[in-house]
Amino acid sequence: MRKLVLISILTIGFLLSANFPLAAQGVLLKKDIYVGPDETQDNVITFGGEIVIEGRVKESVVAFGGRIVVFGEVDSSVVGIGAEITLHPSAVVHGDVVSIGGALNRDPQAKIDGDTIFFETTDELWTSLKTALEGFFGLTLLPIILLIKIIALFVWLIIALLIALLFPRHVATASLEIRKNFWPVFGVGFLSIIIFAGLVLFSVFLSLIIIGLPLLITLIFIGLVIKMFSRVVIYAFFGEVLTKAFGTKNPALILQVVLGFLLVSLITFIPWLGTLVAFVLNIIGWGTVVKTRFGTRS
Fold first, then answer.
1. What is the mean pLDDT of residues 257-275?
2. What is the pTM of this model?
3. Residues of 79-98 as b/e, b for ≥16 C-beta within 10 angstroms?
4. Mind giving me the DSSP string for 205-271?
5. CA-CA distance, 38 to 35, in Å (whole number)?
6. Which neighbouring-strand residues pair with 50?
7. What are the residue ranges spanned by the domains of the chain?
């Protein structure tokens, strides 16, 4: 139960906070962040601000909007979602550089040990968003649904990256369990969902006489936490499969999550087939979380 509460509080806190350093978890979350030449940080995250790295970051640098400017050293990945990434000649990134919907400026002398993944925001995407907004005011249903899906996907990406940064070992352990024990994981997930659905129905019945209301709220809370963590595990698993298929031996967890997110999102957008795939992935995700107890055991 402590792990459930911890994951939920941290996730909600990250989404609502504009300036919230988490020293205990080795995560620095602020709008504008400067890491000096003689300074060392673990994970660095910003929403719409500027990150300047002249020293060293032991883990990852992540920006949602804003800018990332690297003069120094990053031991893991540099990830920009709708952000501008600039790597100067002295920059050293031992992991991967991922830019989605932003800009990437790399000096030829900058060193990147991992992979460079760049998805530029196209005019077609902005046209689709504009059409969606026009559809909203024109009461056209399809563009509204598309816009809601895009916003939901972006929120899921933020949650996935934050959980992967905060609990990398837990996510990696749970992801490994899928590959090692797929059918036991699937079976546990199927039974877990059936039992959970039964408990929810039972609590709904009890809530008619008020007694079951606290139980119903608790179950909803637990279900949301399991769904969040399980999705990240699924992203990491498919991201690892995808990166290794292209010859990457030891892909960074952040890269796995981003690529897995893109792959799963693309598949689940397909009518009918996407719904079926999403259902199967939910079973696998639940089974992994329950079997590994949120990645705390294999």
1. 86
2. 0.69
3. bbbbbbbbbbeebbbebbbb
4. HHHTTSTTHHHHHHHHHHHHHHHHHHHHHHHHHHHHHHHHHTT-SS--HHHHHHHHHHHHHHHHTST
5. 8
6. 67
7. 2-119, 123-292
Q: Cα–Cα distance between 14 and 252 in angstroms, integer? A: 22
State the Cα–Cα distance between residues 174 and 189, nearest whole angstrom.
13
The two structure tokens encoding residue 181:
């024990």
pLDDT digits 0-9 by tens, 170-188: 999 999 999 999 999 999 9
CA–CA separation, 63 and 26 (whole Å): 16
Sign, CA dihedral 155-10-235-240, equals: positive
Q: Which residues contact 24 (CB under 8 A, 6 or more apart)?
A: none
pLDDT of residue 117: 80
pLDDT greater at residue 12 or residue 241: 241
Exposure letters 11-25 (e unless 16+ CB within 10 A, then b): beebeeeeeeebeee
DSSP for residue 30:
-
Share of the chain above pLDDT 90, in %: 36
